[in-house]
Design goal:
2 domains, elongated, ten-stranded mixed sheet, 526 residues, eight-stranded mixed sheet, alpha/beta
């Protein structure tokens, strides 16, 4: 009902309040052009930058390039005279022995996924506790302390609802994992049969190598160490339940309608060792102070992550670089072009009334780390941050639009109404007045199984109550693959999408009132 009312409101607004074009905004939007966009992206997504993996030389080269552009444009260096905000990261290099269940060995990134660790791990168990879907009823009274737990990593079926069965954990499942971890099991095995398809795509090779990167938060006390979670495939689950005389599918079907918590007498063992090293990483910030004394303390943020997934680790690969032209070289190019448009306006005496921060985030591919650090340690108070316009993948035609009539005239808009109906209207009006693209709200839903609302840097602003819009073209065949090359970028489409963000930002930076936060934060039902 909430979505329907928003749609009706938006329709009425579109029909009755399409504003006249602002000649100043229109003039500077033309500064954003395909020629300059191609220049930036051809450098950022070149083989020389080696896929811009966080902590690697390619990411450092990208950060230096962005900072140099900010300086050339006359943007201020707001971090004590620097364009760089250090993001303290640590890298855990993990070596996992075979996971052995009931005498059968299973392999990391072929049969299961285990990334990250609180430290060394050693488990030897003679029983496994099956907890079904892990609901409160199913784990109530179950002794999980020091045990290996087998859990169905899907949302439990409910009559009249389509269950989310993606291997990506829903918010409800994340809460279930925390509830199980509170009971201090030695290991949680989360079963999702769809995981096999993902692992087959990577041919048994972790695309990020054996190392994981996280924010450095000090050494965890023993009481703070959480139980590790292995995401496992169907064959692992079948081995775990073999002693029952049933298949995992049998137990899963029964758990859909009745509590099936039970102890299974079988063996489970695994060991893992990790070493930790500090990682050099920075967010890149360029700042333009506002011209209005009454409004310049308020800040609009344009964000994009400049990191990608680095070099190809698959043996025998002919293309060794994941160039990340679309993800997110296109978004980084977008904010560089938008910054150039605002800078030209300022040089001409037409600068924005509010201040504008251009934020290049590091570590997005490692778990939104750069934006998490910035929002936890903001250079400009989040209370004064009026909105974040986040651009992540705007240079391609997504798989759902290939061959469609509007394939070169659309963008997915995510999150605009999650916190502020004002921001939603401003984004709609900017599009209706200037760019006239199809704004696709398919993924604008906290219950979206793909969880796109939670998967890019805007979310770290949203969790603090800052209104956001996330611009996105959708995934394609080259997503997180070496084929994400500059040659496949549609530069006129990239520019049009960047211009939409510019027009939206221009209005936000110059209007009398900031967008009102009038919507409670989205709470997914699943």
């Amino acid at each position: 009902m909430k979505k329907l009312s928003l749609w009706i409101t938006g329709l009425a607004f579109t029909a009755t309040a399409c504003a006249q074009q602002n000649p100043t905004a229109l003039k500077y939007s033309k500064v954003i052009n395909p020629t300059d966009a191609r220049k930036h992206l051809s450098i950022l997504a070149s083989d020389e930058f080696e896929g811009r993996e966080t902590g690697k030389p390619g990411a450092e080269k990208a950060a230096n390039y962005i900072a140099a552009e900010f300086k050339r444009l006359g943007l201020q260096a707001p971090v004590k005279g620097s364009y760089f905000l250090e993001v303290p990261l640590t890298q855990s290099t993990l070596t996992v022995s075979a996971l052995n269940i009931n005498g059968q060995d299973f392999t990391n990134w072929k049969d299961f996924v285990f990334q990250g660790s609180n430290g060394d791990l050693k488990v030897n168990a003679t029983e496994i506790v099956f907890v079904g879907y892990g609901t409160a009823d199913e784990i109530a009274g179950a002794d999980l302390a020091g045990k290996v737990v087998l859990w169905i990593n899907e949302d439990k079926p409910e009559e009249g609802k389509t269950a989310n069965t993606s291997y990506r954990m829903s918010t409800a499942r994340q809460a279930i994992v925390k509830a199980m971890q509170a009971k201090k099991p030695a290991l949680i095995l989360g079963v999702n049969e769809g995981l096999s398809k993902l692992l087959a795509r990577f041919n048994g090779v972790n695309p990020s190598g054996s190392a994981s990167i996280s924010l450095k938060k000090g050494e965890a006390a023993a009481a703070d160490v959480v139980s590790p979670v292995f995401m496992v495939t169907g064959p692992v689950a079948d081995a775990a339940v073999k002693a029952t005389g049933k298949t995992f599918a049998d137990l899963k079907a029964a758990a859909a309608t009745a509590k099936q918590t039970q102890v299974i007498k079988t063996t489970a063992s695994v060991s893992a060792t990790s070493t930790k090293t500090d990682v050099k990483a920075v967010d890149v910030l360029g700042f333009m102070p506002g011209s209005d004394p009454k409004l310049k303390n308020e800040v609009l943020v344009f964000s994009a992550h400049y990191d990608h997934i680095g070099l190809v680790t698959k043996p025998g690969a002919t293309d060794k670089v994941n160039n990340g032209a679309d993800d997110d070289g296109s978004g980084t190019t977008g904010i560089l072009e938008i910054a150039r448009a605002f800078s030209q306006a300022k040089k001409d005496g037409k600068g924005p009334r509010r201040s504008v921060l251009f934020l290049g985030n590091v570590g997005e591919e490692k778990g939104l780390l750069g934006s998490e650090w910035y929002t936890d340690h903001p250079v400009f108070p989040l209370a004064n941050t009026i909105a974040d316009l986040n651009i992540d993948m705007i240079g391609r035609v997504g798989e759902e639009y290939v061959g469609k009539p509007d394939s070169a005239n659309y963008v997915y808009s995510i999150g605009s109404a999650m916190l502020s109906t004002d921001l939603h209207k401003i984004g709609e009006e900017a599009n209706n007045t200037y760019t006239k693209m199809k704004l696709d709200y398919k993924y604008d839903d906290p219950n979206d199984p793909n969880r796109f609302y939670y998967r890019s840097d805007h979310y770290n602003f949203a969790r603090y109550g800052v209104p956001i819009i996330f611009y996105f073209n959708g995934v394609h065949a080259d997503y997180h693959a070496p084929g994400d090359e500059v040659s496949k970028i549609n530069f006129p489409l990239l520019v049009k999408r960047a211009q939409l963000a510019f027009f939206t930002g221009w209005e936000l930076a110059n209007r009398d009132a900031r967008p009102v936060v009038d919507v409670k934060p989205a709470t997914p039902s699943k």
